[in-house]
Fold this protein.
Amino acid sequence: MAEDAERSGRPGAGSASRQGRDESAEERADRMWVELLQELRVAQTGVQILFGALLIAVFQPVFTDLGGTDRAIYVAAVALGAATVGTLIGPVALHRMVAGRHIKPQTVVLASRMAKIGVIMLAATLALTLLLLLRVALDDTLALWLTTAVTAWLVSLWLLLPIWARRHYTSRP
């Protein structure tokens, strides 16, 4: 997510001073802001659908049959889901509050960090939600194994693969 917002240079740059594109710091910040917004749109849609499903679950008749552990998982998933929504919408609020202050490069860095944290929180919310649903549908042990497997898959796609790609494909000046 706008990874290069936090680096001084671009991959493949010929020298330490070259940015990889012929753009000013302001133009680069504008481009990176647009890229970040596109990424956030995808994440926000997913988290809003997930959070909406969590919110209506409490009003379903089967909810009264949940035990204490499942209710605790539900409450944790809802609270984390709400925090995730806030974190992924946070960059928009940040931008709105500092717009016109000529600090767009710094805003992009902060917003990128919020987005990264939001994706981690989204993975945790997904894991809790999946655990709750699978505990209702399956044996607790199988539910835990499946949730662990899906969580490991998300960590692989959303954390390990980007770290590998960053190390593998980024040229050093």
Observations:
- The chain has four helices and no strands.
- The two ends are 22 Å apart (CA to CA).
- Residues 4-19 have pLDDT under 50 and may be disordered.
